[in-house]
Every structure is written in C-alpha cells, then in structure tokens.
Design a protein that fits this description.
The protein has twelve helices and 24 strands. With 442 residues, it is of the alpha/beta class. The protein is globular. The longest helix is centred in the middle third of the chain and has 21 residues. Helix 2 packs parallel to helix 9, helix 5 crosses helix 6 and helix 8 packs parallel to helix 9. The strands form four sheets. Strands 4, 17, 18, 19, 20, 21, 22, 23 and 24 form a nine-stranded mixed beta sheet that branches. Strands 5-6-7-8-9-13-15-16 form an eight-stranded parallel β-barrel, surrounded by eight helices. Strands 1-2-3 form a three-stranded antiparallel beta sheet. The structure holds pyridoxal-5'-phosphate (PLP). Pyridoxal-5'-phosphate binds next to helix 10.
C-alpha cells in the first residue's frame, strides 16, 4: 500500500491526511468528498522554486490551474509566491475573486474570445500567451483602442510529443495549439507582434504533453526553442527574455508510474539553458514552467461511501460507491488508472479484488477496474488516491448528481473550501416552460 504526502494510518486504523481522520471528514462533510493535502502542494511548489534558485536562474513557477481551479487553491498558490496560468474567462474571474496578483497571471487558450481578451486587459494581467493569428489581431486592436500595453508570449509547437516514457519528434506538429516552429508560422506571428508600440514580446512558450517521466523531451524542447531564439536575435535583433517550457511533469497514479522529483526536471532545463546561452553568448532568459498535475494530483484524495455490491461468481465483484464519472471522468474518458484503499479498515488485509463502480447510469462508469481493498460492506469509506488533478475541474452534473464538497487539510486543521452542491444548485439555471408564445400571445 503506497501512501502519499502526509497520509498515515492513525491509531483507530483509519486513513489520516494532514493529521485528520478521513472517516471523521466523511462523517462531517458527507461523501463524495475531495480532500487536499495542502502540505504536499506547498512542498512541491517550494521544490520547483528552490531548484531554479539553486541553479541561479530567474524563474516563474505558474500553477496550471485547469488541473483544479478554486478560490482557495489560488490563495494557497498566492501564499507560495507562484504565478497562475488560466485558460478561460471563468478561471480568470476565479483568480480575480482570490485577488491573485494580476501581474503574475498568464492567459492561455486556443480560442480566447474578444471579451475574454478585453477582460485580461481590464485586469492588466501579466501576459497573454498568444496562440493564433486571429488572437494577434484582437490583442493589437484592443491595445491600440485603449492605448494600453500588454506583454505576450508566443506559443509555439516545437514538433515534440511527449507522454509518459516516450517522446517523438514529429517535425511539424498536428496540434490545435500554437504556431508551428518549422513551417514559418511562428516567425510570421513574431513579425506581426514585434515592434508594436503597445505590445512587448517577452518570449516563447511551449507545452509538450502530460505525465512525462523523463527529462529528454524537455531538453529537446528547450534546445529547439533556443535555436529559434538565436535565429530571431541574429535576424531581427530581438532578445528573448522568457522561455516558458510548460507543464507535464508526471506523478505516481499506480505502481507502474515512476515520476522524477521536481528538481530533476528543473535541473535538466536549467542545464540546457545555461549551456546553450553560454555557447551562443545569449543573455540567460527567465525560465517559466507550468506544473498542474504535479502540484495538485497526488495531493487530492476522494472519499466515497460504499453502497451496493454485486458478486458475479467466477467473473467479478462490483462495489458501488456514491460518486463516479460525474466527479472523476478520467477512467471513463481515457482509461486512467487509480488505486484505492478502505479508509476505515486500513489495518485489515486488503485482500479482495473488486471493481469499484460509480453510480452513474453508464456501464462504463467504473472508477477502478481492478482495486484491491478490504472485504467491503455497505457504509465502508473508500479512498481513491491521486484524484486532485483534472477530476473536480472536469466534473459534471451527469444524472444530476451534485458535485462533491472539497476540504483542505494541513497540520491537523481542516477547512471546507468548496461546499457540496445541493439540488437547488442543480436547478438554479433552469427556467420553467413559459406559456407565452412568440409575439406575446398565450
Ligand atoms: N500548460 C499548458 C499549456 C497545458 O496545456 C497544460 C495541461 O494541459 C499544463 C500546463 C499542465 O500540465 P500538467 O497538469 O500535466 O502539469
């Protein structure tokens, strides 16, 4: 049984996180309940920042908040001195509600609307990561109409796809994001922005994938972008101040995952940047990164209550819990694997192989196809590990299930930071059928 962060087994034989008994949390707040180990979040954030400091590189570590967006997590990110990566007006609005320092907000997205870009200008955010030619024209139009300055990064696709243990260099990349580095689009985007009276090109951005467990892909990405930086210096007399290498650092969902530590990823990036800039006599740019999953993924644990069970002899046993694909779509969406424990029976042998099924009306709503837990009975509390990233942020009201509550725990203290949805919340946007027809006639 692998425990994460501050998880432990307490003297009642229960799973504890941050010194708090998870069974007590389930009793107090109900289930499904997502519990975040905030100590683990802070530890990771500090590890990323410290390694850059040790390498003597100016850096920004931006929390990629699509992984889990809420006012409270933005407040923790602010306390840790992180920057923030948002991808929509909604995430930006959440950041504003958290009073996140605007100059540390970076705005991503492949189809930002006019009003979203105006919102970014209203809030005077740190930078917009421009993604396509339409966006360039909108950013210029808004800047000119307001006489307002804006910093931008140009998102490029370096032709590297990295996932888990492999990466491939594809030359030209088939991606909906960014400007291709090899076919001239990135150069054209640069020309359209460089020398604009209100726009400052800070540098380049790329994001090469997710759940990456080795450093080679980041090294090749950095080398590819630095080559382009050098060509822009030599041909356009432009010095790139920022090199943003995105997120994608892997975490351990199951025993087959072997992530590196934050420092191993960062050291590789720092080495490439320091050695190439030295060789080509280029001023060392700031390195920005955007970890999402590696800050919140294994910091999150979802607690469920066991309801019905169904034993099909010689086939499998289903253990159904009170959540499912509505609070964690990842297993159904792309076969994501998780592990679980019986939080109220931690000291009992976890000897029963079962399928943990959700309660949604879909046969495919299985949270874990093969879990090994203590023999389950109604009322048991099942804890699914590593659910902190892309679960609540991708949650839905499928089958009109209310979204779970979220609690932060740290140093023996707990705090409810997202309340559980109620049935009233679920119908709050519904309007009853009106008897009035078009034209006002009943
Ligand atoms: N940055 C960008 C541009 C992304 O698209 C993503 C994820 O999709 C991230 C950062 C965060 O990735 P991860 O959560 O794998 O660290």
């Amino acid at each position: 049984m692998h425990l994460y962060g501050t998880q432990s087994i307490n003297d009642r034989g229960h799973l504890a996180i941050g010194g708090i008994d998870t069974v007590d949390l389930a009793n107090t707040y109900g289930t499904p309940l997502i519990v975040y180990d905030i100590h683990l979040f802070r530890e990771r954030a500090r590890a990323f920042k410290k390694t850059f400091q040790a390498a003597g590189i100016n850096a920004q570590v931006a929390y990629a908040s699509k992984a889990f967006s809420s006012i409270a997590i933005y407040e923790v990110a602010k306390q840790e001195g992180l920057s923030l990566d948002v991808v929509s007006g909604g995430e930006l609005y959440t950041a504003v509600q958290a009073d996140f320092p605007r100059e540390k907000i970076h705005f991503h997205g492949n189809n930002k609307s006019y009003s979203e870009i105006e919102f970014a200008f209203d809030e005077k955010i740190g930078c917009i990561v421009v993604d396509n030619f339409l966006e360039i024209s909108i950013v210029k139009e808004i800047a000119e109409s307001r006489n307002q300055e804006m910093d931008v990064l140009i998102r490029v696709t370096p032709g590297i796809e990295a996932h888990t243990h492999d990466y491939i260099t594809t030359g030209q990349e088939d991606s909906k994001f960014g400007f291709d580095l090899k076919n001239g689009q990135a150069d054209e985007a640069f020309r359209q922005l460089y020398n604009h009276p209100f726009i400052t090109v800070l540098g380049m951005h790329c994001h090469i994938g997710s759940q990456i467990f080795e450093t080679d892909a980041f090294r090749v990405a950095a080398e590819t972008l630095i080559e382009k930086m050098i060509s822009w210096r030599d041909n356009e007399n432009f010095i790139c101040r920022v090199l943003n290498l995105g997120g994608g650092f892997g975490i351990r969902y199951t025993e087959i995952d072997n992530p590196l530590s934050p420092s191993e990823y960062v050291e590789e990036m720092a080495n490439v940047v320091l050695s190439m800039t030295r060789t080509f006599n280029y001023p060392i740019p700031e390195i920005w990164i955007e970890p999402g999953r590696s800050l919140v993924g294994d910091a999150g644990t979802t607690l469920y209550t066991v309801g019905s069970t169904k034993d099909i002899p010689e086939v499998r046993k289903y253990v159904a819990v009170d959540g499912g694909m509505s609070d964690n779509i990842r297993p159904a969406l792309y076969g994501a694997k998780y592990t679980a424990v019986s939080a109220n029976r931690m000291t009992e042998p976890h000897s029963e192989k079962v399928t943990i099924a959700g309660k949604c009306c879909e046969s495919g709503d299985k949270l874990i196809e093969e879990a090994t837990i203590a023999p389950a009975i109604e009322g048991d509390i099942i804890a699914t590990f590593c659910t902190g990233a892309y679960s609540y942020s991708m949650s839905s009201n499928y089958n009109r299930l209310p979204r779970p509550a979220i609690v932060f725990v740290e140093n023996g203290e707990e705090q409810l930071v997202v309340r559980r949805e109620t049935y009233e919340d679920i119908v709050r946007l519904d309007l009853p059928l009106q008897k009035v027809k078009r034209g006002g006639k009943v």
